[in-house]
Amino acid sequence: MDALLTSASFVFRDDGTAYSPRHDDIYHSAAGALAQARHVFLQGNGLPARWRARKRFIVLETGFGMGINFLATWAAWREDAHHATMLEFISIEKHPFSVDDLHRAHAAIIDDAAVVPLAASLVSAWPPLEAGLHRLAFDAGMMTLTLAFGDAADVLQRLADHCVTVDAIYLDGFAPAKNPDMWTPAIFASLARIATHDATFATFTSAGDVKRALLNNGFEYRKVAGFGGKRAMLVGKRS
User: Fold this and answer.
1) CA 45 to chain centroid
2) Lower CB density within 10 Å: C or N end of the chain?
3) What is the DSSP letter of 97?
4) Could you read off the pLDDT tens digit of each residue along the chain, which spans 239 residues?
5) Which residues form the MnmC-like methyltransferase domain (predicted)?
């Protein structure tokens, strides 16, 4: 479990978006990384309303990337006077950034005063790029981040085998056409095993294969307006 991983690399395009040469795809919309995270994943999962008055709420994300979704979620939890007592965030990443590249990305992308110090805390706690689970604790342990460095299918199967359950799913990662390994039937089968009876999900894509995989694994979905000029995205829940 201590095998070194191949780190991610990125370049900035002329419109300011971070681009992955490995996947020939962008990490975030040109309309704003934090705004995209809030629209697609927080709003798409009915957050913060769904975690209110809960003692514990668990979010699972299938692609950590630059950590923007995590940071947006952490900031929303902090700002919510009625937030869940404990928020646990589990995120999978096969090609994590080096700490220097993560810092460089945040410096260029994050301009929200409430998020800047959270990003600095994340960079300071960034673990070595070794396969396995890395648990980070923030805000006196009330906010935790478990970084699962490795292949998504393998990680999700292990989580399911260990009876981990989650309340909200952020289906992220690069587009299905660019990174099909993140959108396989095995991925969705494991997600169905770890989703609680009232779990929700949200994703930026509305690809046909994704819709079919959701239905085949006990999720119901609906199309809603996407972010940044994108016509549609999917949100839904366990059926």
Assistant:
1) 12
2) N
3) P
4) 446 689 998 898 988 888 898 998 888 888 899 999 999 999 999 999 999 989 999 999 999 999 999 999 999 999 999 999 999 999 999 999 999 999 999 999 999 999 999 999 999 999 999 999 999 999 999 999 999 999 999 999 999 999 999 999 999 988 899 999 999 999 999 999 999 999 999 999 999 999 999 999 999 999 999 998 899 999 999 98
5) 118-238
The pairing of strands 143-149 and 132-138 is antiparallel
- The residue ranges of every structural domain in the chain are 11-238
pTM exceeding the 0.85 threshold for the entire prediction: yes
The arrangement of strands across the sheet holding 11-12 comes to: 11-12, 18-20, 25-26
How far is CA 212 from each of CA 45, 99, 114, 167, 173, rounded to the nearest angstrom? 20, 37, 38, 22, 18
The CATH topology of domain 11-238 is Rossmann fold (3.40.50)
Q: Which of 134, 127, 48, 123 is nearest to 91 (CA)?
A: 134
Residue carrying structure tokens 């959701």: 214
* Distance in angstroms (rounded) separating the CA atoms of residues 168 and 180: 22
